[in-house]
Amino acid sequence: MVKWFWQRDAAPRRTLALRGRGDQGDATRVDFAELAPELPRFLGQAAYLQLGYFETLTRLIRATPELAEKEALSRAAGAALTKHRGIVDLIAARGDDPTQLMLPFRENLDAFRRKTIGVRPRETLLAVYITAGMLDDFYLALSSSYGETGHRVADILREDDARHEIVAIVQETIESDEEWRSLLSMWARRLVGDTILVCRTALRPERLAVDDERIEPVYTELMGAHARRMDAMGLAS
């Protein structure tokens, strides 16, 4: 089966291993090189996703009255902006226009992000953590299909995201009120389907119809990592 969940080393850094083309196995094994989109499409999507995280977190900073929380969210927002700029710089170094590569995905990804804006700021905060975690996992897995450029994107995505700041805020919230625990658990479950859809639409459209069953293990790994994040916060997945 596919192996691409995270392991921490002493740095700590995340590493990713995907099964190679020459490995023998059953039909559920996935070769991402066959499913991955063209490199410009991959880079444009990855860059715009990080910009979206930054924008949402910035909105939350404005909506948060507590100074300590503002500072925590600013660190997470800054990390997202740093990743965005890193991918944008990589696009520019290749001779492409970052804006032009991101533009085709603006409408769909903005619509996805609007769906993750909760009625309450805490819901939106959890949405950033859940969706960014799943999508970073997914795009880091895809990065192995693009040689040296993919390695450079992987290094960018592995940078500290400061999302432990978000976890601390969510944990404090649910520990203070059991109603929050129930509400946020339900909200997180609503986010998963839309996030998986973003992953699906990131792959080569012409291969989805014939490779749907082969992609299933990828979703299984995403859900496993999602469940571990939920458990770590004390929320039911």
Summarize the structure.
Helices cover 72% and strands 0% of the residues.
Could you characterize what this model shows?
It is a single chain. By secondary structure, the protein is mainly α. The protein has a single domain (37-101, 109-227), classed as Ferritin, core subunit, four-helix bundle (Ferritin). Helix content is 72%, strand content 0%. The protein has 10 helices and no strands. The protein has helices at residues 32-35, 39-63, 67-93, 98-102, 106-115, 121-142, 147-157, 164-176, 178-202, 205-233. Helix 3 runs antiparallel to helix 8 (164-176) and helix 8 (164-176) packs antiparallel against helix 9 (178-202).
Q: Could you spell the SSE succession in H and E letters?
A: HHHHHHHHHH
Instruction: Give the radius of gyration.
Output: 18 Å
Q: What coarse outline follows from CA principal-axis ratios?
A: globular
In CATH, the architecture is Up-down Bundle
